[in-house]
Each structure stands twice: as C-alpha cells, then as structure tokens.
Amino acid sequence: MFWKSKKVDERVKNQQNKIYKEIFFFVMLICLISILIKFITEGVSSQNVLTERLILIFSAVYYCGRAAYLGIFTDEVEIHDSASKFKLSTKFIIFGVAIGMVIAIIMGVNSAFNYAESTPQAIYFFFMVFFVSLFMYSSFIAGILILFYGLAKKKSDRVIQRMLEDEDSGDQYEKHTFKNGSN
Amino acid sequence: MKNIRLKMARIEHDLSQGELAEKVGVTRQTIGLIELGKYNPTLNLCIAICKTLNKTLDELFWEE
Fold first, then answer.
1. Is residue A1 part of a domain?
2. Where do the HTH cro/C1-type domain residues begin and end (chain B) (predicted)?
3. Lesser CB count within 10 Å: N end or C end of chain A?
4. Residue-wise pLDDT tens for chain A (183 aa)?
5. Residue B11: its chain A contacts at CB < 8 A?
C-alpha cells in the first residue's frame, strides 16, 4: 500500500548481473595476487593471508550452498558431464590432489631452505616433507571437496525433484503413455 | 500457469523432455519447469523451442 513497486528493466538487470559477475572475478583475482605478493614479500604463512583465504573459501561455499538450495547444481553437473570427457566429481578429486601437491611443494621447499644445513640434507628434507604433506593434504582436500560435492548434489537433486513434482508423470514414460491415451 | 500446449506439442513430435532439452540446449529440468509454469523462459529459448516443434510463439506461449 505504502510501498511503490520498483520498476525493473530486464535489460538493465541483465547488464547489472554481468557487471556483478565481473566484479566477483576481479575480487577473486585480487585475492590470489595478494596471496602471491604476501608469500613473496612476507614469506609463506597461512596467518598472513587469512582474510584472502576467508574470502575465497566463503564465496565458494556460499555459491555451492545457494546453487544446491535453488536446484541448479544438478543442472550444472548435468551440463558439464554431458560436454566434458571427465565427470565433474573426477575433476573435483583432481583439483584437490593438485592443490595438495602445490601445498606439498611449498612445504618441501620451505623445509629445505629453512632447516637443512647441507645440500644432501636439503634434498632429503624436501622429499620427506613433500611426500608426507602430499599424502596428508591431497587426501584431506580431495575428501572435503568430494564430500561437499556429494552433499550439494544430493540437496540439489531433492530440490529440483520437489519443484518438478507437480508433473503428471515422468520423461520417457510420459511420452508414450500420453500418446496412447492412458495418461 | 501450466503450459499444456507446449507439453502437447512436444508429445506430438514424439519427444521426451530430455530430447527437447538437448535440441534447444538446456537441461531436462528447465523444460519441465517451463511446462509447469515455474520458469519464465527468455525469448531466445522460446524461439528455439518453437522452431524445434514447428510452432509459432503465439501457439505455444500466448496466454488468452
């Protein structure tokens, strides 16, 4: 009664969404560049890049959560899996292992440079820390990613199923029953 | 509001939701939601559906 409904021009709205998407991309890029610069100038420390990590992790978790609750995660997986050679779940595992490998290399180099007193010891430290870190971080990160993937997919499947529930019948089945007049 | 005409046209062409979806480049769920009137498709998608089903926009999407 007192509120005037705001006029929304769909062209303006679409262009605004495009701009928001670009802003999101730039924020992510700035965070990554900031992490890189801090690692180079202040050394490798997770405390130094806490804010950047929070921004990166929160935005990823928020997107996954919203996509799952709106039911579009199912569609995203379907579109991806039909067009790509590797399934999205496989890519999640590969991504987790790759991140673990990067962390393991950083940890290995850090140990070799800071704690070894000779070159053979540095090599020994590097490989020892690298393999232990690789085993720990890769399995942990890949496990977390696949767990989130599974939860998001399950939730999204349930949401989209509920949205499509009003339908009289299914897909392939419906096509034939309707034609035969039994629907 | 359910789009029964779209559903009928799809069945006339002996297409499942998944098959129509693949032809117009969307997911099966999107076609399902359009038929249920729960998703408002863009003009481009409407045109793609009409072309695939050999119908006009009026025949499929105009509400009397």
1. no
2. 6-60
3. N
4. 566 667 778 889 889 999 999 999 999 999 999 999 998 888 777 788 899 999 999 999 999 999 999 999 999 999 999 889 999 999 999 999 999 999 899 889 888 888 888 888 889 999 999 999 999 999 999 999 999 999 999 999 999 999 888 655 444 444 444 444 333
5. 174-175, 178-179
Q: Look up residue A129 and give its two tokens.
A: 């820390």
> Which pTM value belongs to this model?
0.75
- CA dist B48 and A95 (Å) reads 36
Number of neighbouring beta carbons within 10 Å of residue A79: 15
DSSP A45: -
Which residue range forms the structural domain that includes residue B31? 4-61
Cα gap A19→A105, rounded to integer Å: 37
What is the number of structural domains in chain A?
A: 1
Taking CB atoms and an 8 Å cutoff, what residues of chain B touch A158?
A: none
Distance CA A172, CA A52 (A): 48
Best CA proximity match to B4, nearest among B59, B54, B43? B59
Return phi, psi of residue B29, to 5°. Answer: -60, -40
